[in-house]
Amino acid sequence: MCLGMGLAYMGAFVTPEPNHLPVAVVGSGPEAKVFAQTVKDKAGDALDVRTVAGRPAAVDLLKSRDITGAYVLDAKAPELVVATAASDMGATAVEKVFTPLAAQQGIPLKITDVAPPVDDDPTGQGLFFLLIALSIGSYASVAALGAAGGGLPLRVRALLAVGVSGVVSGIGALLAGPVFHLAHHDLTGLWGMGWLYSAGILFVGVGLHTFLKRWTTLAMMVLFVMLNFTSSGGLFRPELQNGFFGTLHAFWNGAGFVEGARSLLYFDGNGLTGNIWTLVAWLAVGLFVTAVAGAVERVRARGAVHEEPVTERQSAEPQDAEEEAELEETVAV
Question: Potential cystine with 286: which of 62, 153, 159, 204 (Cβ 3.0-4.6 Å)?
Answer without folding.
Answer: 204
